[in-house]
Amino acid sequence: MSTKKLVIVGVLLLLFQAFSFMVGGLIAPSPTTAVHYLAAKCVDTAKSHQSNKWFMPWGPNQCEKIGTFEEAMAKKIEANNIVFSVHVPLPNKEMSPWFQFMLVILHLVIMSFHISLDGSLVTVDVGLAYRDDMMSEWTEMAHSLEQRKLNCKFGTTKTYENEGRYYECDLLPFMELGSVAHKYYLLNIRLPVHERKKINVGIGEIMDIRLVGIHQNGGFTKVWFAMKTFLTPAYSSS
User: Facing residues of 175 across strands?
Assistant: First the structure.
């Protein structure tokens, strides 16, 4: 190949590269999106917990909920009968296979005063289900009993004036899906308490469970796929 043709090919490749940077910077959306969820506190009134029963936080078939644990104590509801429920995505939205993956981070909101939580183990009983329309039944996708180590600090001096403040706890890795094949997902989370086996004993008062769902943006995936489709043959032919 002559020098002139090599220069032309080099210029074309630089133009393709500049075009790719412009598309990535001006057209493509951000690569990922983080969505925050607050788990609803559902009450399991059954005497024996059924593994095939799913608790919805909202909608026509939503569960019986409580607002605070003070309300649970007033109604004599035990901790083992509380199910933290999270629906992914938020109402009036759908997940898509274009999202590629979904990573979920766990944030425990803990209020305590007299104990140290650094290094304590929390046990979570997690069920994951899916469906592809709002009227069908939930299908179990996974169920697991997991342990996570807490790393929590009390951000101020432990005086009676500061009693009732929350701990500052590190975010915990929770779960990851390698593909997002369904439109709707439901997480049911229990914090089983067993004093004799020392399960979830001495971990403070867990007031809320928050989750952060991270997935790849569908628009970014489409732009990325289009760029690979059009540019790969150009680079291969050169």
Answer: 104
What are the structure tokens assigned to 149, written together?
A: 């180590």
Contact assessment for residue 81 and residue 48, using Cβ atoms and an 8 Å cutoff: no
pLDDT-derived band at 192, boundaries 50, 70, 90: very high
Residue located via tokens 């680079």: 235
| β-strand pairing of 172-177 with 184-190 | unpaired
Contact in structure between 146 and 126 (CB atoms under 8 Å):
yes
Q: How far apart are the first and last CA of the chain?
A: 11
Strand 121-131 with 139-149, pairing: antiparallel
For 16, other C-beta atoms within 10 Å of its C-beta total 16
Query: Token digits for 141?
Result: 């996708």
Q: Which helix (H) or strand (E) holds 207?
A: strand 205-216
Q: How much is the average pLDDT of 170-176?
A: 94
Q: Could you write out the DSSP letters of every residue in 22-80?
A: HIIIIIS--SEEEEEEE-EEEE---SS--TT---BSSSTTBPPEES-HHHHHHTT--GG
- Block residue for tokens 């020392």: 198
Angle between helices 218-237 and 3-22 (to 10 degrees): 180
Global pTM reads: 0.81
Q: What is the pLDDT of residues 64-123, one digit of tens each?
A: 999 888 888 888 888 899 999 999 999 999 999 989 899 999 999 988 656 666 778 999
Pairing of strands 32-38, 205-216: antiparallel
What does each C-alpha distance from 146 to 28, 173, 204 come to in angstroms? 37, 11, 18
Question: Which is more confident, 191 or 4?
Answer: 191
